[in-house]
Structure prediction request, 378 residues.
Amino acid sequence: MEIPPQRFTAAQVCEAAEEFIRLFHRENPEAGAPCARLAAVREELAETGTYRHTPEELVHGARVAWRNSNRCIGRLYWNSLRVRDRRELVASDEIADECFAHLREATNRGRVRPTVTVFAPDAPDRPGPLIWSEQLVRYAGYGDHPSVTVGDARNAPLTEALLRLGWAGGAGTPFDLLPLVVQGVNDKPRWFDTPADAVLEVPIRHPDDPGWGAWGLRWHAVPAISNMCLEIGGVHYPAAPFNGWYMGTEIGARNLADTDRYNLLPAVARRLGLDTSSDRSLWKDRALVELNRAVLDSFDRAGVTIADHHAESRRFLTHVEREERKGREVGADWSWIVPPISGSATPVFHRTYEDRPSSTAYVHHPGAQERAQGRDLV
Ligand code: ARG
Prediction:
C-alpha cells in the first residue's frame, strides 16, 4: 500500500499550529492568554515533530473544521457538533466497533445528532488509521454497468472487490448494507459486517400513492462521511468520520435519481403516468419533484430528522449573517451550496460567495476515491 506523503513541512506545521492555538484562545476567552500554550506547543513540535491537542482544542478544532466546510449548506449549528475523542484507537476492529457506536449515537432513534469520531492522528513515524469506505453506511451495487446494476451503481467497484475478498454478499436486494472497510495502523485493510441495529432506514412512500410502498424503496437516516481527513492546526486525523442530517434533495434529487446511481426517474414517471416520449413534457422535472416529496414525507412520518432545501437555504444565510457579525467571513462554493433542484427558488442562489481555503478543515485524502472503490484491496 502506498503511504500518502507528508504534505506539510515542519515550518508549515508550526505555522498552522500557532494559527490554530491563537484562534482557539481568541474564541475561548475562558482559556486565557495563548502565550504559555504556544510555548509548550513549540517545544513539543521541536522535540517530537507533532503535538497533542488538549480535549478542548480537539472539540473546538473539529467544530471549526465544519464551520470552514465551503461545500456544506448546513453549518448554522457548527458549534453544537458532538465530538467523540477516540484518539487512542489504532486497531481496525476497535475502530470499526466505534464507527458502529458512532452511528447508533448519531441516529438517536431518528433525532439525528451531528457527530464526529476522531481516531489516532498521523505521527511523524507512522501514518494513522484509514477508513476506506466513503461513508459508514453504503449500499452494495451488483453488476458492472449502471444500467444493469442492482443497488447503488456508485458502489459497484467496492462491492465487486469485497466479493472477491470473501464477503458472502447480501440478500441481493437494491439496498444491501456493505461491510465497512478499515485499515488500522501498520495493518492491511479489513472489512467488518455492518450490524443491522446500527443503521436506521426509512421506507420511501409517496403521500398520494400508496402503491409506492410495495416498491421497496428506502434510504438510511444518517449520512456519515468517513474518508476525509480532519486537519486541525497542522495535525492530521486521517480517520474522523462525521455526520450531519440529510437534506431531502441529496436523496431525492441525487442518490435515487442520478443516472449513474439508482436512476429512478423513468420508473417514477411511469408510476405518475407521465408522457416520457419527449424531454419537453418535463417528465424528469415532474418526477424529481414527486420523488423529493416522497423522501421528505417518508422521513417525517418515520420521525427521522431531514431538512428541506428551502429551510436549509434560509438557515445558511442566517449562518452567514451571524458569522459576519462575529467578524468572520464565510467561505462557500456556490456550485455545492445551491440545491440540485429549484435552485433559483431558494435565497442562496441569488448571490456569490468566496471559496476560501483554511488550514483547519475536512479535506480529501490523496487516493481516497480509489480506496472507496476498493482499488488494490488485497
Ligand atoms: N450527499 C451525501 C449522501 O447523499 C452526503 C453528504 C453529507 N450530507 C450531509 N447532509 N451532511 O449520502
User: Anything to note?
Assistant: Residues 52-256+306-372 form a domain with the Nitric Oxide Synthase; Chain A, domain 1 fold (CATH 3.90.340.10). Confidence is low (pLDDT under 50) at residues 1-5. The first helix runs from residue 10 to 27.
